Amino acid sequence: MGMVGIVLGSGLGVLAEEVDITNEVDFTEAGLAVSTVPGHAGKFLFGKLGGTDVCLMKGRVHLYEGHGAEAVTAGVRWMAEHGVSSLVLTNAAGSVNRDFTPGEWMMLSDHLNLTGASPLSGASFIDMSVAYDAAWRADFRKVAKGQGMKLNEGIYAGLRGPQYETPAEIRMLRTVGADAVGMSTVLEAIQARALGLRVVGFSCLTNWAAGMQENLNHEEVLETGKSAARVMARLLKEVIAAREAP
Ligand code: HPA
Hints:
single chain; binds hypoxanthine; alpha/beta; globular; Rossmann fold; 5-stranded mixed beta barrel
């Protein structure tokens, strides 16, 4: 059975406390670029979550730090080379959908890659019609329900950033079908699908998107992530422990 990789978004590092860590590899040791954003220390943590082998990736790098699409997705390729066959992508995002309240989670049903970038080159015409695995999503939906956890589902718009959006941009994103907005995940999902990994994605809705509340700051994003991370840890633990080998 392949390992489950879990990419931890902003403020979601506390998820690592749920894992019995047996080995750590720093990004620098793995030959990866290191993030400079607070709350993004770069390492891979190997261990067990609910009896299943997992590899946590803590501290992804982002396009807005000046890295290219290849550097942003290097962690996904590294994990695939080290035995990961299923990948859970998490992120912090702003809620664009008025029915999805900050503090809640949204499982990605699909995404809009609005970064203008791709980790693939040449004739990599991969099928993205089901980027986020339908059967795995059904498992998460079922377990969340059993746990009494509100798990929203919707479309994540991935932008380059680093500035947060304007209210006009948020209205545009809502019009084109986005439910949440952030600055990561989409390129990693593309890379993972190109490698044949099974992918799911989760947005921790840390705030209302621009124009939906007074203002926006990075501290608020990190704080909300921390408490919501416990809820996600419980969900991941149960689903990953119960999962069938792919
Ligand atoms: N916009 C973009 N990225 C984000 C946001 C947001 O409102 N919140 C957390 N990451």
